[in-house]
Each structure stands twice: as structure tokens, then as C-alpha cells.
Amino acid sequence: MAHTSVTDGAAPSRPASAQDFHNIKVLGTGAFGSVYLAERIHDGVKVAIKRIDMLNAVRNLPREEKTMFMERLDAEIGLLKDLALAPHKNIVLYHDSFLDDATSELCVVMEYVKVFTYPLICI
């Protein structure tokens, strides 16, 4: 899977890595990984980073299914990149992706969307 970057602002000229971000807190977890609220160090922008445990995700899959999994993952990131070229207010923006060699996690850097909850008014 080739590295690609769709960034806003002045980004480093090298591919992104885990060292470019400071994790703040876990936003959620799933079967193959977690999503973190993080801060991009060079500009302080808050982002969401989906960290997919690649070893765990493909560990028990037969070879053909591993290949299919990787192809689907590559297609999904390709779609996110395409969507980032024509931003829409209802679609979370893709910023970047990279493999964290230290943890074997695929990291997908996305726009952080703060969810506002409104109190329920009972009459």
C-alpha cells in the first residue's frame, strides 16, 4: 500500500509517521483497532486517527482472504482520498495514512468531528 497524503496547511515534506502526532485520548475501539483523538504536532490541528492492528486483522485468514482484505483496505483508502479531493460538509475528510512500523498498525488520519449533544427537554 503506497503512502499518500492529503493535508491542509503547511505539512512536512516527508511522509507522515506516528512521531508527527500526539495522542490525546481513545475515542472508540473495535475488533481490529482503536480511534484516537490526536494533535498534529507541526500545527496543533486536532485529528482522529484510526489505528488498525494489521497483524490481528489478518492473523487467522487463509492466504486468499488476506489478499482480498488488503485489496479492500487499499480500495477503501483510495475512496477516502478521492472524496478528499471534493470536500463535502457531510463527509469526514481524509488527511493521510501510514504504517506505524513499531506497532504494525495502519494509521488513517481523518478530520476530527466534535459531536455536540443537546439535552433532551422533557415536557
TrEMBL record:
Its EC number is 2.7.11.1. Residues 21-123 form the Protein kinase domain. It comes from the Eukaryota. ATP binds at residue 50. It catalyses: L-seryl-[protein] + ATP = O-phospho-L-seryl-[protein] + ADP + H(+); L-threonyl-[protein] + ATP = O-phospho-L-threonyl-[protein] + ADP + H(+). Keywords: ATP-binding, Kinase, Nucleotide-binding, Serine/threonine-protein kinase, Transferase. The keyword Nucleotide-binding applies. This is non-specific serine/threonine protein kinase. It comes from Kipferlia bialata.
